[in-house]
Amino acid sequence: MTVKFRAALVAVGAVLALGAAACGGSSSGKAGTAGSGGTFKPAAQTGGTLTVWVDSTRLAAAQLYQKEHPEVKMDIVTYDGDANGSNYLQTKVSLFNRTGSGWPDVVFSAENNEAAWAVPAGFTAPLNKGLIPQATLDGWATNANAPCTVDGTVYCLRNDLSQTVLWYNDKLMKQWGYQVPTTWEQYQALGQKVATEHPGYLVGAAGDTFTPEVYMWAGKCGANQITGAKAVTVDTTSANCTKMAGLLDTLIQNKTMSTSSVFSSDFDKNEADKILMMPGPSWYGGALFQGTFKTPAGQIGVAPMPQWAGDSSPSVGNVGGGTWLVSAHSKNLKAATDFLTWATTSDDYQGKLAPGYPAYATAAKTWLAAQSASGYYADDITAPLTTAADQVWTGWGYGQFSQEAIWAATVTPGVNAGKTITSLLPAWHDSIVNYAKTDGYQVASK
After folding, report:
1. DSSP state string for 222-241
2. pLDDT tens digits, residue range 109-148?
3. Burial class (CB in 10 A: 0-12, 13-18, 19+), 439
4. Where are the alpha helices (DSSP H) in 359-438?
5. What distance in Å separates the CA atoms of residue 61 and residue 67, rounded to the nearest whole number?
């Protein structure tokens, strides 16, 4: 669906000379390119219509920008946002590179790993080499733009974060006299206690494809250590990996850890009202508890993710998010970066309308204030979510291959067949290695 608007955009006449490092070859065609180790050469800046690609959720952002900036002529196109690794954007860019035309000026992607292919393809413009001030870029949460950064150059901007926290039923915790655990060891012990004292109740779920991003990532399991543009170190048998696998196995066996997807009708019908605790991303509050599960107001609280006892460096995982990219071929770089900056930092959208936790820290404060004022949560969610935003463990990277697809193909079937996650760690390792090599990664294996 395309929405076209009238009005005029003031043409940008100057050609920007921006130095940028890239990790691959330049694209074909005559527009701007970013060659390996060379200099970004923008297309001739002629202005005209600003073409923006968004998914259905971010359509509201583009429409609000158009409303607030009627002088900008825009062509807003909705597409699937590359959700669930559809690779639609990469496929279209490959076509545009061959034909030398067709690139949008700005694109939103629901994926965090687009830089892995977009930089080598010469598609995405370097943002911290003159397009966006460093003072603005410094406003993102710690490491939020890590998946967008290649050799010190920022090629996209994070839209929202999906940092993990510990959701819990405050009403039941108080009723049963339980303390919210602060360590994984306490978490497991409480799960074992719940199995005995309140059978049928849950302390977590491990039935989704993003299970490793909730537990293994937060627990500092080095299964997905991206060390370069096309390099990864895979270690699934470290102490942190085996400890977390053992924790999950214990709780799956005593039935306090569900093996159903939290999005399944079976979970919604039989388990959604049996949740005592649930480690998960920041969007669980609105999407699951308020939305799908319809948990009554005043029950759900938020606490920091548990940590391994003795670990002085807190870490959390990440489940989702999204990124915005400006095309290196854009003839409207000024307009494109103005839109990009607004879409990622504006309180009007990110702070007041965005469904997820904004990656831009100032907008996140506004968003959190609105969540707290809603009266839904049992306590103030601001501190745990804000703290977690700066604690996403950097030892788990954003490769082009999908860890969710690997887990779904390798670990989930085994668990459903009654195998332990611990016994499946070698198979998980081998599958990651194979997927990574297929995508052209150099793999260091442990």
Report:
1. -S-EEEETTEEEE-S-SHHH
2. 999 999 989 999 999 999 999 999 999 999 999 999 999 9
3. middle
4. 361-373, 382-389, 403-416, 421-438
5. 10
